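Annotated sample (chain length 333).
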Amino acid sequence: MAVILSGIKPTGIPTLGNYLGALKNFVKLQNERTEDKFLFFIADLHAITVPQNPAELRANIKNLAALYLACGLNKDNLVLFIQSEVAEHAEMGYIMQSMAYMGEMERMTQFKEKSRKQETGVTTALFTYPALMAADILLYNTDLVPVGEDQLQHLELTRDLAIRFNNRYSDTFKVPEGLVTKVGARIMDLQNPLKKMSKSEDPGDKGCIFLLDPIDLIKKKIKSAVTDSDSIVKYDKANKPGISNLMTIYSCITGEDYKTIEAKYVGKGYGEFKSDLADIVASEIAKIQDNYKKLINSSELDEILDKGRDEATYLARKQLSKAYRKVGLGRKK
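Output written by the structure step:
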């Protein structure tokens, strides 16, 4: 049995891109690997590396937990918890900070990009959060971490810190492997298909579909998506990024490949394609929203999170205690 772990920051309502690129893949992975143990967490400690509105953050934490489940994750094969409710994450994060070098942190691409955008008021937590990310993984003897290209560097740091700790203090941490899923969907902005759809966008942005958008608005956003002038439904990412992005969405939801989609719309224009896609996306998200509405204010959601917190705390405490003993902290040998 392998332990598979992943987390998502509650920095906004997940988008269609988050769903097709990550959440939907988690569900598929869980269905394929029924013998494995899945730990998924809401990474709220990572969220506060930049300023957050406390009320919005608290609401987003609960929304994201409900949406995880609403997207189809099997609660019977899942430890779902909130990162900040398991204090061992912060404690192990400090241990990992004591193992990491300044040069390693300075090389982290995401820190360089985010600090460049922010320019002033960059927090030390934004600089050191890869150490906390390493702690998140190493606390649970994780075997596999589903990763995208943008997280490979952080996983490699986690592996380096685990090996460094083991070499310095004897075997303590399992060295995790990356689980690179089948080519996942990279969903682009509907109004600017050259940039990724992002949940940091304004909720009123026409280029981004949020999982809790009204269904009519979702359809409207699809129908007003930017395409090109020739009206031929053909996948050509370099020359036709707009329609190619819409075809990616169509393919991810229906399972049809690009050639099948192209054949279906020979001689038909973008209007018919967009209308069909609007119905397909709306139907998919409507099911998620129905499940979400049943969960969001239910006692069931709190029970799942309470159970996840308790199980995660039990596992994390054992690993943290072992690490404390190895480095010489506390009175007990």
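Annotation: The domain at 215-294 is CATH 1.10.240.10 (Tyrosyl-Transfer RNA Synthetase).
Annotation: The chain has two domains: 3-185+298-327, 215-294.
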